[in-house]
Amino acid sequence: MKVLKNEEMRKLDEIAINTYKIPGIILMENAGISVVEEIEKSLASKENKKIAVISGLGNNGGDGFVITRHLMNKGIQVITYIVGDTSMIKGDAKINFDILEKMKAFIVKLESSEDIIQFQEDLQQYSILVDALLGTGLQRTVEGIMREVILKMNASKKEIIAVDIPSGINGNDGKVQGVAVEAKKTITFQLPKIGNILFPGSYYGGALLVKNIGIPKEAVSLIQSKIHLITEEVAASVLSKRYGDTHKGSYGRAFIIAGSVGMSGAAILASKTALRCGAGLLRTAVPESLIPILENQLIEGITVPVKEMLDKGIINYLKEENVVAIGPGCGRSQEFEEILHTVITSARLPLVIDADGLNLLANNIHLLKDLKAPCIITPHPGEMSRLTGLSIQEVNDHRLEVAKNFSEKWGVITLLKGARTVITDPQGQIFINRTGNPGMATAGSGDVLTGMITGLLSQGVEPLQAAIVSAYLHGKAGDRAAEELGEYSMLAGDIIDQVPFVIQEIIRA
Ligand SMILES: NC(=O)C1=CN([C@@H]2O[C@H](COP(=O)(O)OP(=O)(O)OC[C@H]3O[C@@H](n4cnc5c(N)ncnc54)[C@H](OP(=O)(O)O)[C@@H]3O)[C@@H](O)[C@H]2O)[C@@H](O)CC1
Ligand SMILES: Nc1ncnc2c1ncn2[C@@H]1O[C@H](COP(=O)(O)OP(=O)(O)O)[C@@H](O)[C@H]1O
Ligand SMILES: [K+]
What we know:
Elements: H1 6-19, H2 24-44, E1 51-55, H3 59-73, E2 78-83, H4 91-102, E3 106-110, H5 113-123, E4 128-132, H6 144-155, E5 159-163, E6 185-189, H7 194-197, H8 201-205, E7 207-211, H9 217-221, E8 227-229, H10 232-238, E9 253-257, H11 264-276, E10 281-286, H12 291-297, E11 302-305, H13 306-312, H14 314-317, E12 323-326, H15 334-346, E13 351-353, H16 355-362, E14 375-377, H17 381-388, H18 392-397, H19 399-410, E15 413-416, E16 422-424, E17 430-432, H20 445-458, H21 463-485, H22 492-508
Parallel strand pairs: 1-2, 1-4, 2-3, 4-5, 5-6, 6-7, 8-17, 9-10, 9-12, 10-11, 12-13, 13-14, 14-15
Antiparallel strand pairs: 15-16, 16-17
The structure holds ligand NPW, adenosine-5'-diphosphate and potassium ion.
The site of potassium ion (K) has 12 residues, from strand 4 and strand 5.
């Protein structure tokens, strides 16, 4: 699903209105009605049915006027607050404002500090507040009366439903422009905006619902956005049912180079996951001293000593494999550095580089120019900072751009981990993942992700798809683990335990 910037959403509205001749007021009507449906759902469980719709002067406020009208028609008690000088309302919003006046709707204007004192008192009587102050037209830091109104709405602790995007959140990047509404749910129109998806905007928005407002599919296809939200349908298109007449060889051979003394767990986690994600055959190369531990923990996989790889020739050793992953828990030994160097510059099979593999790479980033095969790197922000020389703060502040620039510069698929993992390719495409939770911020969960990507690549899944689907699957398995065990207690191994159920769920859907 495409994710839009404010300007792109405006362009889409324009195409619908100018090319497809759908009057803007119809789009506004549909937008308002779609929010009313959600208000009714929230209202069903409440005794107090009184609602406040809090509108601005733009089209987001216009949606609010439509919402008021429909709630009135349904016999629901509703009061509209308007922030600012109502003589400034124009266009479709003005038409809807005039209708409300004719309907003798209860309208309160908020223009001064005294009005705010009364507003704060009033808020206690409502069951739901509808936030229709600012949408994709947010231009600058929110100040003055508008800021006061938002602060009072938040302080009221009432359930807030946001129209399109929580007011104060920048649709282009999810950042708070001074202050923002904290909503329980947000109904966004036609397609999500970046600010609905990325943090902190996503946190402020609560549950996100995307509602169609009648813009034709063809119009959507005219918008050239390169940013996509990863959906279950994408995962389902990759994780198809297996064909009956297949065998172990049909699902490929995966090779994982991982582990060091004190970090055998990383090798085990990645390996187990690759098998759970369907790899036909798996070999894991670890330092010799770890072999007994792996043999004990991973009976389905084959374990080989790293030294044997070096003795027999790294490339020769990998010639039957379909994918090689390097890095989880491998430390920064010279042996691994040599393997990484050779694999990057000479191996002709898909490559996944994670964790210490990335730390080793950071010392010698130019090796990537000699890649002979598709490569996926899976840094967390700390590793990305080492790879790029940017600070962690800079990486986190510009997650999409940082990952995109890295992919374009080095010709790799970049999977930048964290809350809202971002995947980018050398063509400038950006995919954002919404699954997952803070319970996954636990040692080893990154190793599980590497195992997933490796398992899918072994089965011939295209590298970009493997990265996208793994991020989705990983987060979804993490969400199930959090549901069962809680975010505090879940461990990386618990994510693996959920993988079979998640895959089955996706295949059956
Ligand atoms: N046909 C369509 O296009 C459809 C659009 N739809 C809806 O329209 C929304 C976009 O509407 P929009 O473009 O009118 O902008 P909107 O979010 O209402 O904000 C503009 C107003 O806010 C003000 N303002 C800005 N920043 C401010 C600040 N920091 N602090 C204070 N004020 C600030 C700005 O004032 P000005 O800058 O002019 O002084 C102006 O008054 C979109 O999110 C969706 O809900 C749907 O109905 C579907 C059809
Ligand atoms: N708050 C969060 N929301 C969603 N996913 C998260 C969150 N915190 C961590 N994760 C995911 O957990 C994984 C952690 O990986 P990583 O930092 O490499 O851990 P480790 O090195 O311990 O294995 C990543 O896939 C990351 O996206
Ligand atoms: K809003």
